[in-house]
Amino acid sequence: MFVGIDISKAKLDIAILPSGELFEVKNTPSGIADLITRFDLERPEVIVLEPSGGYELPLLLELSAAQQRVALVHATRIKEFINATGKRAKTDALDAMNIALFAQVMRPEPRAMPGIERLELEFWVARRTQIIGMLTMEKNRLALSSGSVRSSLELHIAFLEDQRRAANTELETRINHSSVYQALSALLSSVPGVGVVTATTLVAILPELGCLSRGEITALVGLAPFARESGAWKGKRFISGGRVGVRNVLYMAALSAKRCNPVIKGMFGRLKGAGKPFKVCLVACMRKLLLMLNAIAGSGEVFDSSRWTGGNRVAVSV
């Protein structure tokens, strides 16, 4: 039994294969409870959902609590799969059936959902990012304003600065209230160039840190360059996909680390001396920094630059 669910604000469209059954329930606590009751009896092989701007979270949490096999699959993967079948019609019910077909053919690997504690931490990281984005926009407007408009902007900027500090305090409090998060944050912060913001973001939105191999963690974050070759032609390799929020903080951390982290500083200097463009050097340093953090999270040992120089660097990599 393979289930596909198309999620909207008001309702959930459910398709089941191989029976071909289609039905809908309200996207409310009572509607979700009824659905969970049915799935508890039938135990589907896998239930596939797409991200829907947060409307999927209540259902995801309930499915996870019920220990159902659920996979949250990026909409692009499902869209490309359906395009390959040649189907073009689109309704909520058809979308649900297409998701169920994807589940039946592709068999995506179910993943355990995070607990409410880590979800709250992730939400606060996202909220801080939103506040910083608004601050940047308002400060840009301030440079081009005058008179009463300038006063309005200054008031709003002061308010947003207060909100940013409050978000930082909230995140610090949540990290300190969890012995696991506190220990991991301290480990990550031991790496020169990695500050509180980077460590908090990694704890919140990269729970796989320390559990994956070198290739898996770089691919997950989107720091593994994709080959672009055909016959005799060899194009430039680019990074893409992955977790943008993680890459953003690693970018800023790498800028700092190339000045104060002896391992990253040496690597950046060697690449720059070899004539590599600045962005290529920095992305390579981001990947190196990620591998350091992955190894440290996996081993539970604080940063030691001697382990990342010479022949010993492989010993702590995972």
Task: Tell me about this structure.
- The protein is an alpha/beta fold and 318 residues long.
- The protein has three domains: 2-106, ATPase, nucleotide binding domain (Nucleotidyltransferase, domain 5), CATH 3.30.420; 118-177; 188-316, no CATH class.
- Helix content is 58%, strand content 9%.
- It contains twelve helices and seven strands.
- The protein has helices at 29-42, 57-65, 75-85, 92-106, 116-142, 147-176, 179-189, 196-205, 214-221, 244-260, 262-273, 278-299; strands at 2-7, 11-17, 21-26, 46-49, 70-72, 229-230, 233-234.
- A five-stranded mixed β-sheet has the order 3-2-1-4-5.
- It is globular, with a radius of gyration of 23 Å.
- Mean pLDDT is 89; it is low at 311-318.
